[in-house]
Design a protein that fits this description.
alpha+beta; Alpha-Beta Plaits; four-stranded antiparallel beta sheet; globular
Amino acid sequence: MSDESYYKTIIAPISTEKSLSLRESQNKLIFIVNRRANKREIKEAVEKLFNVKVEDIRTYITNKGEKRAIVKLKPEFKASEIATKLGLV
């Protein structure tokens, strides 16, 4: 995959109370992703864009039709550091 396709896969980070509590307690980040992206593509995009290792990904589609991915990072990486770089904190 090229860098351009990574940016098409990961559309935007989510900053809500739920995402904040997941980030602090479980080392997870939530992103809006391309509706056609699968877990493998999402994992590769997150790892390449943010230089982290992903432990687990859960996806769901909202009532509005957005696809979201809850990305759990490996313990050696901090979700709060990535959130700071993204301007979520």
